[in-house]
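> example.struct
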C-alpha cells in the first residue's frame, strides 16, 4: 500500500515536470575558475539524480559486508537459540547426554554462553560424569571471567550434592575471599557446617548469615538452637554452663530442646538443687510434659519433699502420664515400691511407652517377679521393634533340674 502511493506520487511529479520542461527546457550556466559549463535544466536534473544514485549505490556496497555479517550472526544466534532450547527440553525429559551435546554445540554462537556451559555442566553432573562437569565449569570460568561467582556457586552446589564436602568447603571459601559476605555462599557454607556437625564454625558464621543471606527464619532458628544446645552439652562445669546459657538469645530460652539440655547439664555438673528450683519455677509458669519428666530424675536435696510436691501437682493433673511417671520415679527413690508400682501401672494404662515398661520391668525384677518383669521388658522391646515379640522361654537352672 505504501509503495503504491509512492509510485503514484512519483508519476504525478514526473508528469508535471515533463509538462513544464517540454514547454521551456531552460538554460543553466556554471562558471567556476574560468571554466564555463552550459546545459539545459533536464540535463542538470538527470546528472543530479545520477550523482545521488551513485552515492547510494557506493554506500550500499561499502555497508554490504557488515550487513551480511550481521545477518549471518542473527542466523547463527537463532540456530544457537533453537539448539539451546532443544537441549533444555532433552534435559527436562531426562535425556541428559543428548541435552549436554546440544548445549555444548550451541555455546560458541550463543548470546549467553555462560548459561550453556552451566547447563551442560549440570547435565554431565546428573550423568555422574564428574571430570566432564568440571571441564564445562572451567570453560565457563575461562571464557566469562566476570561470572566467576556464578561458576563457583554452581560448582559448590554440585560438590555438596556429590558429598564432596572438603572440595565444596574449599570452593565456598574461595568464593568468600573473592566476594566477601556473598549471601548465597554464606547460606551454602552454613548448610555444609550443619551437615558436618561443625558447630563451632557454624556459630561463628551465623551472625554473617543472618545479616547478609535471605534464608528462612525457621532454618536459622533451627541452626541457632542446635549451636547453643551443643555449647550447653559441651559445658564441663558450672562456670562454663552459666556462660553457655547466658549466650542463648531471649527468643530461644523457652525452647524445649534447649531447656532439656540445660537442666540435664545442671544435673551432670552436680547442680541438682538449682535444677530442682528452676524446674519448679518453670512448671509454675508453663506446664510442659518434658519438664515434668525431668523433675522425676533430678536428685533434689530432700527426696521425700520432692515426692510431696509431685503429689500436690497430681491434685490438678491427676491423669497426666508424665506427672504419674515422675511420681513413680520419686517413689522408687523413696523406696515406696507398692506406690511406685501403682503409678507405673496407671501410666501403662494411659500411655504405654518403652521407657515406662523399662522402669516397670526393673521394679518387678527387684520385687522378685521375674516372669512378669520379662513380660514387661518384652512389651517394651516390642514397641521399639514395631511388633509383638514372642514370650521369653523360661530356662530352668541347674539347681531347679536337680
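> example.seq
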Amino acid at each position: 500500500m505504501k509503495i503504491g502511493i509512492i509510485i503514484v506520487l512519483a508519476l504525478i511529479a514526473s508528469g508535471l515536470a515533463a509538462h513544464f520542461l517540454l514547454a521551456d527546457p531552460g538554460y543553466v550556466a556554471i562558471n567556476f575558475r574560468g571554466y564555463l559549463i552550459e546545459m539545459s535544466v533536464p540535463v542538470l536534473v538527470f546528472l543530479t539524480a545520477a550523482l545521488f544514485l551513485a552515492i547510494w549505490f557506493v554506500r550500499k556496497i561499502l555497508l554490504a559486508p557488515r550487513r551480511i555479517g550481521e545477518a549471518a550472526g542473527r542466523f547463527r544466534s537463532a540456530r544457537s537459540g533453537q539448539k539451546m532450547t532443544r537441549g533444555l527440553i532433552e534435559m527436562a525429559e531426562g535425556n541428559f547426554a543428548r541435552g549436554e551435546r546440544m548445549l555444548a554445540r550451541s555455546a560458541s554462537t550463543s548470546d549467553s554462553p555462560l548459561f550453556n556451559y552451566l547447563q551442560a555442566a549440570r547435565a554431565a553432573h546428573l550423568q555422574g560424569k564428574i571430570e566432564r562437569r568440571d571441564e564445562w565449569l572451567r570453560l565457563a570460568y575461562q571464557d566469562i571471567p566476570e561470572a566467576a561467582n556464578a561458576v563457583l556457586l554452581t560448582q559448590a552446589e554440585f560438590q555438596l550434592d556429590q558429598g564432596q564436602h572438603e572440595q565444596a568447603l574449599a570452593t565456598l571459601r574461595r568464593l568468600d575471599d573473592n566476594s566477601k559476605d556473598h549471601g548465597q555462599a554464606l547460606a551454602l557454607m552454613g548448610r555444609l557446617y550443619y551437615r558436618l556437625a561443625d558447630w563451632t564454625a557454624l556459630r561463628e558464621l551465623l551472625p554473617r548469615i543472618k545479616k547478609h543471606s535471605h534464608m528462612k527464619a525457621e532454618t536459622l532458628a533451627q541452626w541457632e538452637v542446635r549451636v547453643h544446645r551443643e555449647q550447653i552439652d559441651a559445658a564441663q562445669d558450672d562456670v562454663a554452663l552459666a556462660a553457655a546459657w547466658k549466650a542463648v538469645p531471649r527468643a530461644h530460652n523457652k525452647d524445649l530442646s534447649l531447656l532439656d539440655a540445660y537442666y540435664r547439664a545442671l544435673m551432670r555438673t552436680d547442680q541438682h538443687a538449682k535444677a530442682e528450683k528452676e524446674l519448679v519455677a518453670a512448671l509454675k509458669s508453663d506446664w510442659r510434659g518434658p519438664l515434668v519428666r525431668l523433675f522425676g530424675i533430678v536428685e533434689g536435696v530432700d527426696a521425700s519433699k520432692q515426692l510431696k510436691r509431685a503429689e500436690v501437682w497430681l491434685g490438678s493433673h491427676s491423669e497426666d502420664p508424665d506427672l504419674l511417671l515422675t511420681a513413680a520415679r520419686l517413689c522408687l527413690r523413696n523406696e515406696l515400691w507398692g506406690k511406685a508400682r501403682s503409678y507405673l501401672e496407671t501410666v501403662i494404662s494411659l500411655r504405654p511407652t518403652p521407657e515406662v515398661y523399662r522402669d516397670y520391668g526393673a521394679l518387678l525384677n527387684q520385687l522378685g517377679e521375674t516372669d512378669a518383669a520379662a513380660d514387661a521388658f518384652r512389651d517394651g522391646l516390642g514397641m521399639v521393634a514395631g511388633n509383638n515379640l514372642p514370650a521369653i522361654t523360661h530356662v530352668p537352672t541347674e539347681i531347679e533340674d536337680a
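> remarks
Residues 41-92 form the longest helix (52 residues).
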